[in-house]
Amino acid sequence: MTTIHALLQAATPGSTPHTLPYFVFTLVKLLLVFTVYMVGVALLTLAERKISAWIQDRHGPNRVGKGWLQPAADGVKNFVKEETYPAAANIPLFVLAPALAFIPALVTWAVIPFAAPWDSPWGRIDMMLAPLPVGFLFILAISSLGVYGIVLAGWSSNNKYALLGGLRSSAQMISYEIAMGMSTIPVLLLSGNVTLNRIVNQQAFETWNVLNLTIAFFIFLVAAFAETNRLPFDLPEAESELIAGYHSEYSAMKFSLFFIAEYANMVTASALMSTLFFGGWDIPFTLWDNVAPFTFLKTFLTLGCFVTKVLFFVFLYMWIRWTLPRFRYDQLMSLGWKLLLPLALGYIVAVATTIVTLDALGFARGSVPFHLGLILLNVAAVVILFVILDRGKLISPAYSRLNQRDVAKLRAVSAPRRAPLLPESGD
Amino acid sequence: MSHGELPLFYVFHFYLFGIIAIASAVAFVTRKSPVAAALWLVNTMFSLAALYVLLDAHFIGVIQVLVYAGAIMVVFLFVIMLLNLGHASDIADARGIGWKLAAGLVGLALLAQVFALTRARVPEALALPDGTVAEQVAARGAIAPIAGPLFNEYLLAFEVTSVLLLAAVVGAVVLGKRRGSADAR
User: Fold this and answer.
1) Which of B7, B66, B185 faces A144 most closely, judged by CB atoms?
2) CB B78 within 8 A of CB A151
3) In this predicted complex, what is the ipTM?
């Protein structure tokens, strides 16, 4: 028993573990998070259809139990449908791929704090599954594995469209992962630690990062859309070009698992945005929820606050999906590499310089002048980026035609490749 | 080597991930299909990351997953799939019985070295007292104990490494340009 004690001490530094309650509560939390997550994801498919219907001025699902039982009907349908395997597929990888797409989204939840801790009669209980010392980096590491599911699905189906979808997705996810990682460095600069609890507390006692670091939030938001393969970045599935992309060959529950994975990724990305930039479970304008005593009421209310924030971002995802058209591949790549990455790098330098300068001037972290300085920088950056450099000046948006210079450039790129294919007299 | 003083929990997971890592590495070397081999290598990397975490090196473990499993191997897989390399026996560098024997001998030599090293005593200067790492993590977080020395005492070495990486990037760009196609990607 003492060894387990020592182990728990090492696993959760600073807390005094009461061994048995710790295990029981971890189990309860695991089950609760898993159940709520899965049911939530199922309901989100309904929400997506209802919201799309609302945006397009139609009814949406309204038959099975007035529409509310539609997710259950979909689930039952997918369970009883026939599983098909393409003749030339690589069966082990074909079966493995949906699981690999889904698991990273679920595992990420291990480190996201979803409510204020609760001082239960059996000791303090952190409202997160695993308080890892590397917190945030764990999320980056696990989400970098999400690409395997899609790539393997595309490759193992042995289908041209699926392979194209898989290749697109790997290129897209690698590109935007870098911008995503870079955009979070300013957050870490401010919090001075990588554990998500620390990031939440720093925002609670100072200001939410979205006010200090709007550009970083913007980059993270765009990168998160690309990482989850949602419109306007859903090139890996692009119905009008690739049938259904990487999951063209999947049927029944395996297809459904990709579907669940997409929504799970969406919820995870929304939770990350809330935690990193919108104070996580912090209730705004009050410190009541951030200081002891941590009663159950506080836990409950902060949980509600967190869920509200997450649902807002999930709604934003759906809103944008049914509003914006898909990016072209070259627009996607130039947005990732030519805009977001340099912007993120430049922003890191700007924020780091400002923080060092403010420190050197003697303003304490968390003091009003310190944050005023950061917010000034932020306002300047926002004005420069969204007012002066926006509207096709840096990069052509999804809805615009290519300008002639870009057309000439792209033709020059593909000319040597087309040359052997074209007849001599061709253009 | 005795494991008497280590908790059962630790020993169990050490052997679990050790066995997975070795089995995956063997599968990686013996698989014919490049894609399967690459995936077994990913599995090896992942198990190694778990072993790092067991050694209290959380940061190294996460970086192992992030860089090797999440970035480098994805690019490997991307290239393998894009090129669709065909059967392994046509593209292997080490053909014939001589190469295989040589590879086996090098493997045995490395194994012997590992066994020799585990029997050697760790120099006093390199050994930390028990629990130091956990203490450091509790006091300063998982990153600060690594970042401190890296950006203070060993800054020059760190910067030199970045020059090395820069040289690799420049080399890659030059090689990419030479084909005559200014690829947009």
Assistant:
1) B66
2) yes
3) 0.77
